[in-house]
Design a protein that fits this description.
- The chain has helices at residues 19-27, 69-73, 99-103, 127-131, 137-141, 152-165, 207-216, 220-252, and strands spanning 5-10, 49-53, 56-60, 79-81, 87-89, 110-111, 120-121, 147-151, 185-188.
- By secondary structure, it is an alpha+beta fold.
- It has one domain: Alpha-Beta Plaits (2-Layer Sandwich), CATH 3.30.70.
- A three-stranded mixed β-sheet has the order 8-1-9. It has a two-stranded antiparallel ribbon with strand order 2-3.
Length: 253
């Protein structure tokens, strides 16, 4: 039986070499960017990025939530939580509705805007490689072990011990441990995470659970009218915002 694995990324150990970025491109057969990898952004052709904040480097990728909001809103069941801990998807099932993009608390999934049969694309934690007994490309290539891969419970223990043993070195919080119900990607850092561009102030409840609890308090008669209209307004507004961001990123390159 496959065990639940995860990734622990330690900002203090990252030297910004970009090896994880390049290896991810290689193992996923994605086109290499012509520009500086530090200027690249998450897209349908880039599943992980390295970003610089002053003298610190950090990574952005799918957080592989314990209870993924993207899977809960997928109309066709294209997105699922794998027994390995990864959140995976079936591109052949994807109908391009982009609800997963709107639902993701970490704003990760990206859309194939230029394709005639567009799909959602994102990191799947090298799920096929893991099932073959290999490491994800990013963890395999990292020269400083800033990215570790292994049993999620053991990684949580490693992260907690580093914070406990080096209180002067680390900001005393493990990002991803509780945010949006927790995830299988954990991050530790010497500074608060909002300083590194991570989404902060997320609820501890999983997003599907958070939404379910909110909906249970709304009378059914209201759900049939006002809430539906409000939801459609929010979804439309969010979809337009995503399209604008993608357009700006494309022009920025």
């Amino acid at each position: 039986m496959l065990k639940e694995n995860g990734i622990l990324f330690d900002v203090t150990l990252c030297v910004g070499c970009g090896s994880c970025y390049k290896k991810c491109k290689e193992v996923n057969s994605l086109p290499q960017a012509n520009n500086d990898f530090l200027k690249d952004h998450l897209s349908n052709n880039t599943y992980t990025v390295v970003e610089q904040y002053d003298k610190l480097y950090t990574r952005k990728l799918c957080m592989h939530c314990n209870e993924p909001a993207c899977a809960s809103v997928c109309l066709v069941g294209a997105i699922k939580k794998s027994p390995t801990g990864a959140v995976v998807y079936d591109g052949d099932k994807c109908i391009g509705c982009r609800y997963c993009m709107q639902a993701c608390p970490h704003k990760v999934p990206r859309y194939e805007w230029s394709s005639t049969k567009p799909r959602i694309r994102k990191c799947i934690m090298c799920n096929n490689r893991v099932q073959e007994g290999k490491l994800p490309g990013c963890a395999e290539i990292c020269p400083t072990e800033a990215t570790l891969f292994g049993n999620i419970d053991k990684l949580i223990e490693v992260a907690k011990n580093r914070l406990k043993d080096n209180p002067e070195k680390y900001y005393q919080h493990i990002y991803g441990l509780e945010e949006a119900g927790g995830s299988h990607v954990l991050i530790i850092s010497p500074v608060p995470f909002e300083q590194l561009g991570y989404v902060s102030k997320l609820p501890k409840e999983s997003m599907p659970e958070f939404t379910m609890r909110a909906m249970e308090k709304i009378p059914s008669v209201v759900v049939g009218g006002g809430v539906f209209l409000s939801a459609m307004y929010w979804l439309t507004k969010r979809k337009n915002q995503i399209a604008k961001e993608e357009k700006n990123n494309t022009h920025g390159n």
